[in-house]
Amino acid sequence: MNYTFAQYKESADYIRSHIGGFAPKVAMVLGSGLGYMGDIVENPIVVPYQDIPHFKVSTAPGHKGQLVFGTLEGQNVAVMQGRMHHYEGYSYEEVAYAVRVLRLLGCGTLIVTNAAGCINLEWKAGELMLITDHIKFFLESPLRGENLPEFGVRFPDASHLYTPALQELARQTAKELDIPLREGVYMYFPGPQYETPAEIRAARVLGADAAGMSTAPEVITAGHCGMQVLGFTLLSNMAAGILDQPLSEQEVLDAAAACRDKFSRLVLACLNKLD
Predict the structure, then answer these.
(1) Which of 53, 131, 132, 222 is 20 to 30 A from 17 via CA?
(2) CA neighbours closer than 13 Å in the CB half-sphere of residue 77
(3) How far is residue 72's CA from residue 169's CA, in Å, rounded to a whole number?
């Protein structure tokens, strides 16, 4: 289906009725095993996805399925504890629906995180990657259908979906914190099955450094409606075919738990430095 601007506005108005005069400026979409950051928001106001008109619910393990509004590192934030995925049966428009709603609420910056398989043979699982670009081939865009000019133009530029100035902020912050930070390209796969070894080899040839099942739809949508974007990937495991072992969901969750400290320190420090 194609949502109308009135439906996005209805969702935003419902949320406003619950958060009062609070005005979020930074949206945070937190991925597998990383939703704990919503638990440290100060003066939190929680709005479950299931209560918001036209919102879909998140069914992925480790995703709470709620919006948390409040203050984090001095910033007014809207934290998505859990995201929607195409593999859950949702269209790409539905997957990215929340981004437009958060834009209507006043968010001008999106911080997006994910856990993904490491493709780059020079890197190892457990490292953090700054997303400099992404690859999303062959699959329809979340912008497919009638354009809503209230959000953006029909054919938006995608040269700098991941804001260069925010990338530089992340580099400097990681250096100050002495946190190693890789930089690379995230490749989107629809899932829910993990990629085959052949697909990973192809992705490497195409220039990808990590493979995952989220992020790209939300970032495309954020770019369309003029938001700045900062993206991080937790390299939770080596991608298919690199090690002689099967991939598992538990491996992803265990890696997220193990990297919780350095990941949160980096993201919170970057958040603190936003204008």
Answers:
(1) 222
(2) 29
(3) 18
Domain span at 153: 5-273
**CATH code: domain of residue 199:** 3.40.50.1580
Domain count for the chain, please give it.
Answer: 1
Query: What does the radius of gyration of the chain's CA atoms come to, in whole angstroms?
Result: 17
Q: What is the pTM of this model?
A: 0.95
Please give the sequence-ordered ranges of beta strands (E in DSSP) within the chain, or none if there are none: 26-30, 42-48, 66-72, 75-81, 109-118, 128-135, 181-188, 210-212, 228-238
Instruction: Of 209, 168, 166, give the one whose Cα is nearest residue 188.
Output: 209
Question: Mind giving me the DSSP string for 102-143?
Answer: HHHTT--EEEEEEEEEE--TTS-TT-EEEEEEEE--SS--TT
Contacts of 178 (CB under 8 A, 6+ apart): none
Q: What ranges in 75-145 are assigned the alpha helix state H?
A: 92-95, 97-104
**Which of 129, 140, 137, 124 shows the shortest CA–CA distance to 205?**
137
Query: What does the alpha-carbon distance between residue 86 and residue 108 come to, in Å, rounded to a whole number?
Result: 25
Amino acid at 236: S
9-35 pLDDT tens trace: 999 999 999 999 999 999 999 876 667
